[in-house]
Amino acid sequence: MEDWEQRVDGINWKTMLAEIDQALLDNLAAEIGFRSYEGLENASGFVAEDYHICHLSDDRWAFWNPHTYTREDPLFFDDKDTVINHIAAMFSLEGEKVEQLRKGLEQVRQAHNCQYCNYEFLPESGTMEWDTSKYCSAECAMESVLHEMKEDFVE
Ligand SMILES: [Zn+2]
Predict the structure, then answer these.
(1) How far apart are CA 40 and CA 27, in angstroms?
(2) Is residue 7 part of a domain?
(3) Is a pLDDT exceeding 80 seen at residue 53?
């Protein structure tokens, strides 16, 4: 009986930890401009040691790490050269390695900004029924149309 209770305690504790982590990760995503951590991860490229890089719609670059987030905020850079210099200095990269880093950054697709919800997103590939460069989802595209219709009605 005691064993059983202990096991239940263990499970609850783990679930709680996972929830805290998820909230923290969603917080990190929101700070960078994404609706969810999944969206942020999707739009980011991996650098090294859990560091990731994301190219935002306003041309800035966000450099983030989920494991150091509690003590280190994500860093934002205005252009690609500045972020390359920062990462190169941080990991002591030189010559060929810096070129590899530059090529890696070029592979990172720039995020778009949803015109309805204002969150950053990476357009889905494939043909959708809405303008995927302007809206993050079918819901946002739809809401935007409804919103315009309402405005027309009021006028
Ligand atoms: Zn949206």
Answers:
(1) 11
(2) no
(3) yes
The range of the structural domain enclosing residue 132 comes to 20-154
Whether 69 maps to a domain, the answer reads yes
Whole-angstrom Cα distance, residue 4 to residue 25?
A: 32
pLDDT at 7: 58
Backbone CA torsion sign across 41, 45, 47, 48: positive
d(CA 27, CA 34) in angstroms, rounded, equals 9
- Residue 29 alpha carbon to ligand 1 centre in Å: 15
CA of residue 54 to ligand 1 center, whole Å: 18
Residue 124 Cα to ligand 1 midpoint, Å, equals 13
Task: Give residue 142 CA to ligand 1 midpoint distance, Å.
Answer: 10
Question: Which residue, among 47, 29, 46, has the nearest Cα to 38 in the 3D structure?
Answer: 29
How many structural domains is the chain composed of? 1
User: How many angstroms does the Cα of residue 87 sit away from the middle of ligand 1?
Assistant: 31
pLDDT per residue over 77-112, tens digit each? 999 999 999 999 999 999 999 999 999 999 999 999
Mean pLDDT, residues 13-22 taken together: 69
